[in-house]
Structure formats: structure tokens, C-alpha cells
Amino acid sequence: PERLFGKQIPVPNGIDITFKEPLGVIGIIVPWNFPMPIAGWGFGPALAAGNTVVLKPAEITPMTAIRLGELALEAGIPEGVFNVIPGKGSIVGERFVTNPLVRKIVFTGSTSVGKGIMRGCADQVKRLTLELGGKSANIIFADSDIQKAAANAPGAVFDNAGQDCCARSRLLVQRSVFDKFMAEFETAVKKFRVEDPALESAEMGPLVSATQLERVKEYVPSGTLIAFQGTKPEGAGYWFAPTVLLPKDVNDRAYREEIFGPVVSVLPFEDEADAIRIANDSEYGLSGSIWSCDIGRAIRVSRAVEAGNLSVNSNSSVRYWTPFGGYKQSGLGRELGPDALDAFTEVKNVFFDTQE
Prior knowledge:
CATH class of the largest domain: Alpha Beta
CATH architecture of the largest domain: 3-Layer(aba) Sandwich
Number of domains: 2
Distance between the termini: 33 Å
Number of strands: 18
Largest sheet: 7 strands, mixed
Helix content: 25-40%
Strand order of the largest sheet: 10-11-12-9-8-14-15
Number of helices: 10
């Protein structure tokens, strides 16, 4: 904490300075989809700011966190500074909320669980960072490089088998190039390699569990209007083919809800204002992409779209050196970036009277 810079603020009749002080014990709850990086971008700045950490991994992916705990000890971090407690969220996570020694919770997971944690933290006015769900839009304008946009669109939603809160699972295409884009997109989807993720050629692997597979299937019941699908391996495994849907309207479950699977809904739009309206018609606001060769349009749309992490002519969402977090029901606060440590400190202001 002695390396954290405060400020000297000009004031009348004295000197005013600020200190950044650690909060204390930080409880970090991470999901199963990216168990190591999400844990790291929580406990790294928390420890660097002078706090201690208790890390709770997801129930189905505990080994990564346990190994991180072992590595912390090997690196010389004293016992009790970085702690790992596997277990059920209803037990371990609940203790993070109720124990007054835990001064802040960092939670990454579903919006419904995040709301419950937020309600629980209110009793103690406990500090909180939430990174929750998403239903991000991938907006394709007619003036974009259609071939490049279509080639990149599968990775934007099918990466990690769609088990990504930043997945661009709403694909908005300007009507004047809709057919052209869809032809290119179909080629790209059918070439997308779904296979054993241990293979270097793999672009998508299976879903995490049988439960998740059944959940994804519920969003594509019999009779769903499927534009086209990719391929998947036969035989054992929680495989689900990359699937492109044409929703009947914007109230379709698959269009509105976070699926956490390789399913994307495609919708046409008329013009810039229509694209912004459709993109913002969601309770979420985590990520998104804008494809256009008009820099003025790209700036206007990026300012108008209600999302915390946008990319232009790219599907990038998370970079360790830039802030990450969501609008609306996608979260609260920011992680990563140059100000990451600030989220794990309190600011103390001290005034010195210099009048004689």
C-alpha cells in the first residue's frame, strides 16, 4: 500500500492530501468458464493493494484455484494472506456475505445470483464488484468489410462454446447487406472446427457438463427456425453444434436471454438509429462489436450503445491493461486496467492547517 499514490489537493489555508488504504479481507467468487484468469484479475490487484484474499472457486472447477493457492505458498506469500475455500455457493459464498470481517466481495456469475449477493451486502454496506450476465450485440453495417466481419463472427459467439458473458449472441445486420453477409457467415460457421480442445486445430470444444448441455438444448426446441448449423463430433461428450437462429420476434427467449452456449440470433436493421435502438433493447450491457469503415459512425454508435466494453472491427473484450465491466444488469464497478487497485482501497482525506 505504500506504493499507492494519493493526491495533494490545493485548498485555502492549508494542505490537503489523500491516502489509499486497504479494505481488509476480500472475498472473491469466480465462475467455471474462465476459472484462472477471472480469479487472477480479482486477487492480483486485491493483494497488491495490501488486502488479504479468500477465493471461492466454482463447485465444478475447484482444482485451478487449489493449485493457485499452492503456487502462492511456493512464491512466498505468507499463510493466511491468500486463502482458497472450495464449496457450495449457498454455504461458502453466503459466509462471505454475512461475515463482517469480509469487507468486500468480488463476484463473477449470473445476474440472479449477483442480485442476491447485492441484497445481502446491503445490511453491512459491504463493498461490492459484480461482473454479471450479458447478451451482447455484434452490429454489422453495410459499409463494413463484410467478408472480414462474417469470418470473425463465429469466434465472437462460439468461442469457449459460447460459455462467455461477452459472447456476441445477438447479431444485427443492416438489411441492405443481410443476404450477402449471411452467405459469408454460413460458410464461416460450417468451417468452424468443433473438436477436442486439446488439438491445436480446435476452435470450439464441448460444453462444460450434461446439465449445461440440456440447458442449451432448451433454447432450441423442435420447430425453432434455424438458419444453419455447424458441425459437431459424434459419440460421447457434451457437444452442441454452432447454431444460427432467425428469431420470429425480439421476445424469443433465445434472443433475449443469456444462453451460455453456441447459439446466436440474427436480426436485420434498417439504419444507424435502428441498430442503436435494437442493441440497447436489453437488460444487459456488457460488451459488443461495431463493424464499419466509417470512423465517424463507429464513434457515434460506440457512444450511443449502452455497454461497458465495445470494440470496432474486432471482437476483443478483455485486456488486462484496460478497464472491464458492464452497464445496467451486467454488473457494478470495474476490474482490470490502470485503476484496478482503486477498487480495493478506501480513500482517506487529511487536511493540515498551515495558518499561524
